[in-house]
Design goal:
8 strands, Rossmann fold, alpha/beta
């Protein structure tokens, strides 16, 4: 994951350079977070590290501002709108954060990462032509390939648990694709578990996951 994230952030950095190369002042990037987990954190840190390293080397001075509302969506939307006038672009990791910044209605460019289905989440019109102020790197791997890899790694698996937030269109869409991939596979059983809306931190999600131990052979979180 870390290797993938670094590659993804380097691609985003290349896009950023193209967009800001004509600026004669320090560009300002807002790294914003409402819902967090270790993967999102790793993505943000890698992105920031690469930008700090490569920006000056390419003649671009960059300042960062940060917003972390720790699950308070109303505070996130308010904070994002307050930042919109002073930053050149926003960086978000993860579908929940991207959807929240979309809801805020900002028109500045938004770079995303760690999003499996930007089209399904209605962040972009298509992968070929985004058509919105959102662009970035998605991390989608076809679910049938993921299932094959899972069965190779854990050949005795029988009960597969799908853990997701049904009210979030991106994870719900991924869960449906997982169900489609599993359906018809002899000997495999699907069990669905929903993430409560109150879960907004890695610790809370870990607690939900621990409660499922023993009910299934493997848990897939979308």
């Amino acid at each position: 994951m870390r290797k993938y994230t670094k590659i993804a952030c380097l691609i985003i950095f290349s896009i950023l350079l193209l967009g800001l190369a004509t600026y004669s002042y320090a560009a300002k990037i807002a790294i914003v977070t409402n819902v967090d987990n270790p993967d999102y954190k790793n993505c943000r840190e890698t992105f920031e590290r690469e930008i700090k390293r490569e920006g000056p080397a390419n003649g671009i001075d960059i300042d960062f501002v940060y917003l972390d509302t720790k699950g308070d969506k109303a505070a996130f939307i308010s904070g994002v709108n307050n930042l919109a006038a002073e930053v050149d672009l926003f960086f978000v990791a993860g579908t929940p954060n991207a959807l929240a910044i979309k809801e805020a209605g900002v028109t500045k460019p938004v770079l995303f990462n760690a999003i499996a289905g930007p089209v399904g989440a209605k962040l972009v019109n298509s992968l070929e032509a985004p058509g919105t102020n959102f662009t970035g790197v998605h991390c989608a791997v076809p679910e049938d390939r993921q299932l094959r890899a899972l069965l190779l790694a854990v050949p005795n698996v029988r009960r597969i648990g799908l853990l997701y937030n049904p009210s979030d269109p991106a994870p719900a869409g991924q869960a449906k694709k997982w169900k489609d991939a599993i359906m018809g596979k002899e000997g495999l059983e699907i069990r669905e578990f929903f993430i409560p809306e109150t879960v907004n931190s890695a610790e809370a999600l870990a607690e939900v996951t621990r409660a499922l131990v023993g009910q299934v052979d493997v848990i897939v979180s979308t």
